[in-house]
Amino acid sequence: MKLLRQRLQWLAVSLVLLAAAGSATAQEAAIRKALPARLPSLPAIDEVRETPVKGLYEVRIGTDLLYTDASGSYLIQGEMMDLQTKSNLTKERIAALTAIDVAKLPLQDAFVTRRGKGERQLVVFADPNCGYCKRFEGELAKIDNVTVYTFLYPILGQDSVEKSRNIWCAKAPGQVWDDWMLKGKTIPAASCSEAQTATLRRNVEFGQKYKIEGTPTLLFADGQRVPGALSATQIERLLAAAAKKS
After folding, report:
1. Do 115 and 86 fall into the same domain?
2. C-alpha 142: how far from its chain's center?
3. How far apart are CA 170 and CA 164, in angstroms?
4. Residue 220 forms beta bridges with which residues?
5. Whose CA is closest to 33, among 21, 23, 45?
6. What is the separation of C-alpha 72 from the centre of its chain, rounded to a whole number of angstroms?
7. What is the mean pLDDT of the chain?
8. Which pLDDT band, with edges at 50, 70 and 90, does 98 fall under?
9. Of the candidates 211, 217, 219, 223, which has an alpha carbon nearest to the alpha carbon of residue 65?
10. 199: domain range?
11. Which pLDDT tens digit goes with each residue over 60-78?
12. Residue 13, C-beta contacts closer than 8 angstroms, at least 6 positions apart
């Protein structure tokens, strides 16, 4: 008899969970239907899911987040804060969506600079016209035992595109880059194939997909992503921390 009661209890719990799942699925379907009907210009919805706020749903379009009510009658654009934990739930969610697996980066689209033994790894997205990138390169030059993968990321206008093209298509991109960023030497014109030019387009598309919105943006071997012109001390500390985790 006791065993029968336990089985009945488990059955009741299972039915409740199934009903809740079915309700959530139906609610998501209703939102997917309602929003495009009310806002035809809305891009295709990739995901709808519940938030910690009762009756409020997250609508994901690519890596962009919006919020709506259960009926899809209202659309909210902004950030959600958890005031108890003082955390920005929207930023945390976007960070998870745009996390970059360093091991899967298309390193063939970057030029490589090795200093010393090059045992540690650092990935940099940089624009040749970025003043902060030039400051960063000056600090990076003080670091030893590192292999740097630099993705040219021309987002500061057409002149950045032209400079990046001439750097990437040079016989020694790393040398031309250092001469320009550290010494201010003029970048020589270079002849580029369509395949080489396509690399720069891929870099920009990659950055847009993963919301790389400024330069320099640094990626360390442990997956940590840091924007801005760090000092040599900061770079060294993060490289050492990443090496310990590997």
Report:
1. no
2. 27
3. 10
4. 122
5. 45
6. 29
7. 90
8. confident
9. 211
10. 102-244
11. 998 899 999 999 999 999 9
12. none
The continuous run of DSSP H or E covering 232 comes out as helix 232-245
Who's near 223: CB < 8 A, 6+ residues apart?
99, 100, 101, 102
Residue 70 sits in the same domain as residue 121: no
Which of 147, 155, 157, 141 minimizes the C-alpha distance to 219?
Answer: 147
Give the C-alpha separation, 218 to 246, whole Å: 17
Q: What is the CA radius of gyration of the chain?
A: 24
Within a domain: residue 161?
yes
Residue 47: Cβ within 10 Å count = 13
Using one digit for the tens of pLDDT, what is the confidence trace for 10-40?
Answer: 544 444 444 444 555 888 999 999 999 999 9
Looking at 45, 72, 98, which one is the last position of a domain? 98
Looking at 39, 71, 98, which one is the last position of a domain?
98
- Of the candidates 236, 206, 207, the one whose C-alpha atom is nearest the C-alpha of residue 220 is 236
What contacts 24+ positions apart, CB below 8 Å, involve 100-103? 100/210, 100/219, 100/223, 100/225, 101/223, 102/219, 102/220, 102/221, 102/223
Cα–Cα distance for residue pair 137/228, rounded to 1 Å: 11
DSSP assignment of 148-205, as one string? EEEEE---S-HHHHHHHHHHHTSSSHHHHHHHHHHH-PPPPP----HHHHHHHHHHHH
CB 146 within 8 A of CB 120: yes
Q: Are residue 139 and residue 59 in the same domain, yes or no?
A: no
Structure tokens at 158: 């057409």
Provide the whole-model pTM.
0.76
Do residues 111 and 49 share a domain?
A: no
Does one domain contain both 84 and 144?
no
